Amino acid sequence: xxxxxxxxxxxxxxxxxxxxxxxxxxxxxxxxxxxxxxxxxxxxxxxxxxxxxxxxxxxxxxxxxxxxxxxxxxxxxxxxxxxxxxxxxxxxxxxxxxxxxxxxxxxxxxxxxxxxxxxxxxxxxxxxxxxxxxxxxxxxxxxxxxxxxxxxxxxxxxxxxxxxxx
Length: 166
Ligand code: SF4
Prior knowledge:
32% of the residues lie in helices and 17% in strands.
């Protein structure tokens, strides 16, 4: 068992320092906050603690059998699922061109690595892009209409809110 210092790969700005435990087979088996970091001081939130699931569980593991609207799916290894995605991507590029591929970025599960690193691929193939997430721009417009700018609200205004969703 060895421990590696790294940072949480999520999309929030905290970038908490974490330590991952890796067993002898190379599998990550634990995630914990790094108490030695002077800023984040061992903190790790419920999203960060679930990072382990993002590595091993939240993958494309089932593929459709036959064409849509078939609702039959079969379990496949990650390597096979990845090959299928790559083949489909190639097919779309060949038949319709790069404008038919939409790179949807700025999703809630993305940090610096997961956000910026794949952009090299999408830039290389000339994929269509969103303006950050599909809802970010509309949110900024709505806030601007109300406040004049879209810097967000003053923290003290939170106390007057009748609904807070997060
Ligand atoms: S552990 Fe939580 S608060 Fe820290 S960077 Fe990750 S998602 Fe953000």
